[in-house]
Design brief:
The protein contains 12 helices and 16 strands. It is α/β, with parallel strands linked by helices.
């Protein structure tokens, strides 16, 4: 039986793949998206049961090595202090993310020009601004206009999340120090929107939102894309992207959930597999035309891996806070976002303000940090801590370094026998100084707000939520993998649209930028298709 042929093959149904599929659907081309995971069933989310905290550490753990599901692939991360957090299924990592949804700053695209480090992007903030706005409209974003940390923008925001008691005590600390804070832009709707019901403050955002209030791509883009005719196929794990004698992509070979090997032909192939999965697929797609892996003549596929090193800082208060009730990301501060050489490092970080912890996590954290003992006094200490804690994380910009890599592990394979990725990552001295600065400033804020005790840790070991840089964008084919509109330098019908094309990481959650880039690349493709110059 011959392989079917489609116009566009998208590999990966997460944040970027969903946005691309929706945008291209208006062309009426035959578009197929292959996703190795399943379509999510909100009734099966941990937050629908009393054991949701336990399941958040097992089958809904953010780390695929802990989840160990058949739809996951293992990752050798022994040589990294930060472990990978992702999710394999329709919606990808947005299923488990907390929904923090800021834009990059204009300066984030020009770090070489401004600070003499890393590289400038080949595009700028103004080029992405309309796509940020489009993405925010599709997703549904709660927030407040007018933040002076950003230029005037064109966002259409829903009313912001309530600050609650946690927000009040932290705002008190910021105000006492004269430091900037602002209600977060959050992909959690505060009122009914686009057929979805508003947030009910359940507080289990990181375990999948059964309410549908959190803007994960499976409930935002995919219903619209499928109604427009996009063919979404789940439990289809791509083994390799195939190429022809001319080196152009011809489609992909994949394995179904039933273990059946199939091949699909495509005129255009789009890769949307995240900053780990994309280099894994490209490096597994060797051929005589691409002996070092597909699109890898620069040797940069898999290099320049960037996480966001996280510091976690928590304070205990005499007065009651909200505990874990409500969305986690209620406020942000970018007081320390831009470079200030007097701080001893370059670039900066965002302070993401969080609510408190649910009961099981409170007990575990208290034990780990010596605030809750075993045996006598355990329950009294727990009561003093539960619903009396709040704090923040410092999301630190990670600079690209070529020695931080994703390669193919020589032994490890997934359940279909496909070679798995290996990570080698070192925390830079710049990041270490930035993390310590974030801990020190957050401690000041918490104490100014009335905290009686402060404790912290950095880097957060399982904080590898943001996976970037491993197939970077640029105009120079010797120093980048894709061009300024996402097309591979080496293969003119191959496009990459996930966080792997990032040149730098900024100091914020990258999801809004990932999706804005996917919409931007889709628009560039449509314009060039109309002009018959897509492959020129």
């Amino acid at each position: 039986m011959s392989a079917e042929t489609v116009d566009v093959l998208i590999i990966g149904a997460g944040a970027s793949g969903a946005a691309m599929a929706w945008s291209l659907a208006e062309t009426k081309m035959h578009i197929v998206c292959l996703e190795q995971g399943a379509l999510m069933n909100p009734l099966a989310y941990p937050s629908t049961g009393r054991d949701w905290e336990a399941r958040s550490t097992s089958d809904f753990n953010s780390n695929p090595n802990v989840r160990g599901l058949k739809t996951d692939y293992p990752i050798n991360e022994e040589n990294s202090p930060i472990k990978v957090a992702n999710f394999n299924g329709v919606g990808g990592g947005t299923v488990l993310y907390a929904g923090h949804f800021p834009r990059f700053h204009p300066s984030d695209f020009r770090v070489k020009s401004l600070d003499g480090v890393a590289d400038d992007w080949p595009i700028d903030y103004n080029q992405l601004a309309p796509y940020y706005a489009e993405n925010e409209k599709m997703t549904g974003v709660a927030g407040m206009n007018g933040d002076p940390a950003y230029p005037s923008d064109n966002a259409q925001r829903l009313p912001p999340l309530p600050l609650g008691e946690s927000g009040k005590v932290l705002a008190k600390g910021f105000n006492a120090l004269g430091w900037h804070w602002w209600p977060s832009d959050t992909a959690i709707i505060t009122e009914d929107y686009d057929g979805r019901a508003g947030c009910i403050n359940l507080g289990a955002c990181g375990a999948g939102c059964a309410q549908g209030a959190k803007g994960s791509a499976d409930v935002t883009y995919w219903p619209h894309a499928q109604r427009a005719g996009v063919d979404l196929r789940t439990r289809c794990r791509v083994r390799e992207i195939t190429v022809g004698p001319d080196g152009m992509a011809t489609g992909a070979r994949y394995v179904t959930g039933a273990g059946e090997e199939k091949e699909i032909k495509a005129h255009v192939v789009v890769v949307a597999c995240n900053g780990i999965g994309t280099p894994r697929l490209l490096l597994n797609s060797k051929s005589p035309q691409h002996p070092d892996g597909l699109a890898n003549s620069s040797g940069l596929v898999g290099k320049n891996l960037m996480f966001h090193p996280y510091a976690w800082i928590q304070g205990m208060f005499e007065e009651a806070t909200d505990g874990f009730a409500g969305p986690h990301k209620l406020m942000r501060s970018q007081e320390f976002y831009e470079t200030d050489e007097s701080r001893g490092y370059v670039r900066g970080y965002t302070l993401e303000i969080q609510r408190g912890m649910p009961p099981v996590r409170t007990a575990h954290t208290g034990l780990r940090h010596g605030r809750i003992p075993w045996g006598s006094g355990h329950h009294d200490a727990f009561r003093r801590m539960f619903n009396h804690c709040t704090g923040m994380v410092a999301v630190c910009e990670d600079l690209p370094e070529e020695h931080n890599t994703v390669t193919i592990d020589p032994v490890l394979k997934d359940s279909d026998g496909i070679p798995a990725p290996k990570i080698d990552y070192t925390l830079s001295e710049n990041s270490k100084r930035m993390l310590q600065h974030g801990v020190d400033r957050a401690t000041e804020i918490l104490k100014a707000g009335g905290a009686t005790d402060v404790y912290s840790e950095w880097p957060i070991p399982y904080g590898g939520w943001h996976l970037m840089g491993t197939a970077r964008m640029g105009k120079d084919p010797s120093r980048s993998v894709v061009n300024e509109w996402g097309r591979a330098h080496d293969c003119k019908n191959l496009f990459i649209i996930d966080g792997s094309i990032f040149v730098t990481s900024a100091g914020v959650n990258p999801t809004n930028t990932i999706q804005a880039l996917a919409l931007y690349v889709a628009d560039q493709m449509k314009q060039r298709l109309a002009n018959a110059t897509l492959f020129d």
